[in-house]
Every structure is written in C-alpha cells, then in structure tokens.
Amino acid sequence: MRVRDVMTTTVVKLSPDNSVRQAAQTMFDNHVSGLPVVDDDGRLVGVISEGDLIRRTELGGATPVTDPTRAANERANAYVRRSSWRVGDAMTADPVTIDEEASVARVAALMQERGIKRVPVLRNDLLVGIVSRADLLQAILSAKQDETAGGDEAIRRSILVRIGENTGLEGLDVKVAVTDGIVHLWGNVVTADCRRAARILAENVRGVRGVVEHYSETDPQ
C-alpha cells in the first residue's frame, strides 16, 4: 500500500503571510494540531503546529532566554518565532515530507522516529496531500484479511514462510503441525517474547482455529 492510497487530498493550507492568530483559529475550527504552509506556487515551505504556538508571547513565552551558551543568532531566532505575527516567521521550516509513492510502512516509521502526527505528501515537490495517524488507522481497518488458501497443509506452509520474515524466530528451528485448523508448535523457543510472536504469527493465518504450544524449555527470568 502506498501513501497516495491513504493520504487526505483535501488539505487546509496556510500562506506564510497569514497571521499566527489566523493559524490558531484555523487549527481550532478544523480540529487539527498542525497545518502545512505553502507559497503562491503551491510549494511547501513549512508547517505550523500547536508545538510552535505554545511558545508564543501571547502565552507568556517572551521570558528572557538565560542560557548563556546559546549563540546570539539562536536567541534572536527564538525571539522572532515567539513574537512575530506572521506564520512564515513562527512556522517550522524544512519539515519532514514524504513522496506519494512511498510505502505506508515508511511513513509510519517516519512518524515513530520523529514523534510527529502528520506528514505532508509531495508530488514533484508540490503539496498534494497529507497523511496523518488517523489515516494509518483507517488503512488498518480497510486492510484485506489474510488470503491463505484453506487446508491444514496450506496453513502449515504459510506459517513456515512467515517465520522467516523478520519475526525474530529465524534460526530457532520452529516446527509446525496443523490438524483440523489447530496449530501445534515445537522448537527451541525459550523466551516469552519469541513464543508470543510465534503464537500471534500463527493466529494471523486464515483458517487457524487455535494454537497449542509444546515447548519444553522454560523461559529464563
């Protein structure tokens, strides 16, 4: 699944010349925590978010910066961001973006790595959408169910293939048998996390009615 398949294409945008007050009102009215900022050619120049606005002088953010290790230009930039009325001064420039052809897995990883809630989507450097955490939740809800062919042997083969797909179970010599949809697991799986991964992997295969574990080793504490 690609970003273009899940992104929101109707995007509320701001201009760098809009006021900070207008940005706050637009976020409030649209129930969003951040908005892309684009120039007259539709090119993304920044993002303004709740995080940018909570530093504002209107909220008492004009207290002097007392850290003597900060350079003068850094303190000046901080002052501009918290005091200017223009969105272009208060916004975060050079935001994290993603191409519409990127995978959904990639944008999810970006959100996790950067601690952000939404990512502007670009096509040839132009803003064409935005993908949010809510869009990813919707993608989970609309994802196709497992399409493994029915039958015990097909289930067993599917589980064995998936064990090698970056699950943490590679090399543990997991043995699988399936009888009437009940999966039986053996092998050198000694940790609770690996056992849980094996069980969930099996449960995610269509046609599985239950999982029985036959591990003899105890989980080290």
Averaging pLDDT over every residue, what do you get?
86
Rg, rounded, reads 25 Å
Classified by CATH, the class of the largest domain is: Alpha Beta
What portion of residues is helical? Answer: 25-40%
> Runs with pLDDT <50, length 5+?
none
* Sheet having the most strands: 3 strands, antiparallel
Find the structural class using helix and strand composition.
alpha/beta
How do you describe this structure in short?
The protein has 221 residues and is α/β, with parallel strands linked by helices.
Please explain how this structure is put together:
The chain folds into two domains: 3-142, Roll (CBS-domain); 152-213, Histidine-containing Protein, Chain: A. The chain is 36% helix and 19% strand. It is built from nine helices and nine strands. It has helices spanning 3-6, 20-30, 50-53, 72-83, 87-90, 104-114, 133-142, 152-163, 192-203, and strands at residues 34-38, 44-49, 92-93, 98-99, 118-123, 126-132, 175-179, 182-186, 210-213. Strand 7 and strand 8 form a beta hairpin. The chain is elongated. It starts with a helix and ends in an 8-residue tail after the last strand. The model has no long low-confidence stretch (mean pLDDT 86).
